[in-house]
């Protein structure tokens, strides 16, 4: 697969991705593309020629129970990558997002979706301001995150196994709930939460990831319907449905301040 960086900023990310994939590969149970050639296709603009990883996208295939174990291995493998080594490659640190700020924006957007008969705005009432405060990211929990887990980047075989993860250009050291959120949109909230739990994450990051995904999908669909962004309307509706699939642990309860997280 030939990938051409369109500008210098993207070129920096592509060159960093080459080294990062070599760093993460030994830690992961799923395939990461290998570059068979790389260089500049124009002055200062990078290209990479990557091996093709077999499998279809998570938008086309459902993940099985064994596939959920593959995703758990992905999350635990990323957590095992030494942060200093990732930072030495130039991987940036990102601050956790404010779930309360995201919740407020999503509440307004949900009202507009409800008016368009796209969403039941009352569903967002499950996440209260106090609940969002309970799900604030804890300090000292930053890990290497893919930060771009979409259905298009998660490769799944016909039997539901996860075969590979594509496009590591957005990787960062940050909030692990972001990757849980990405998986909720890509494969559905129940599968994402089960995978994160199997990877050793507790209720707080799982619920934080769930609600990041739910708010994000409400905002993305609203932006599309109001003409601010492009993309596929059926896919955005599917992503909204996946993120809002019910899970067993829906209720945000009080968490001890010293609750350990991996």
UniProtKB/TrEMBL annotation:
Organism per entry: Streptomyces capoamus
SUPFAM superfamilies: Protein kinase-like (PK-like) (SSF56112)
Domain of life, source organism: Bacteria
Lineage, top ranks: Bacteria, Bacillati, Actinomycetota, Actinomycetes, Kitasatosporales
Protein name: Aminoglycoside phosphotransferase domain-containing protein
Aminoglycoside phosphotransferase domain span: 2-209
């Amino acid at each position: 697969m030939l990938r051409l960086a369109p500008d210098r900023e993207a070129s920096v990310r592509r060159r960093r991705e080459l080294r990062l994939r070599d760093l993460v590969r030994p830690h992961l149970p799923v395939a990461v593309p290998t570059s068979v050639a790389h260089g500049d296709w124009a002055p200062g603009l990078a290209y990479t020629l990557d091996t093709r990883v077999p499998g279809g996208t998570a938008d086309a295939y459902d993940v099985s129970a064994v596939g959920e174990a593959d995703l758990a291995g992905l999350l635990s493998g990323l957590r095992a990558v030494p942060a200093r080594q990732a930072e030495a490659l130039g991987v940036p640190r990102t601050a956790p997002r404010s779930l309360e700020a995201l919740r407020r924006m999503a509440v307004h957007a949900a009202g507009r979706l409800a008016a368009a008969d796209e969403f039941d705005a009352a569903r967002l009432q499950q996440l209260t301001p106090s609940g969002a405060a309970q799900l604030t990211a804890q300090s000292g929990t930053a890990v290497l995150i893919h930060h771009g887990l979409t259905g298009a980047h998660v490769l799944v075989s016909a039997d539901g196994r996860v075969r590979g993860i594509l496009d590591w250009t957005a990787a960062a050291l940050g909030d692990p709930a972001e990757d849980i959120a990405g998986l909720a949109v890509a494969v559905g909230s129940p599968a994402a939460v089960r995978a994160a739990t199997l990877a050793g994450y507790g209720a707080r990051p799982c619920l934080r990831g769930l609600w990041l995904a739910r708010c994000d999908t409400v905002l993305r669909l609203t932006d599309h319907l109001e003409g601010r962004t492009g993309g596929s309307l059926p896919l955005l509706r599917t992503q909204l449905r996946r993120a809002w699939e019910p899970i067993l642990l829906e209720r945000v309860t009080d968490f001890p301040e010293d609750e350990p997280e991996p």
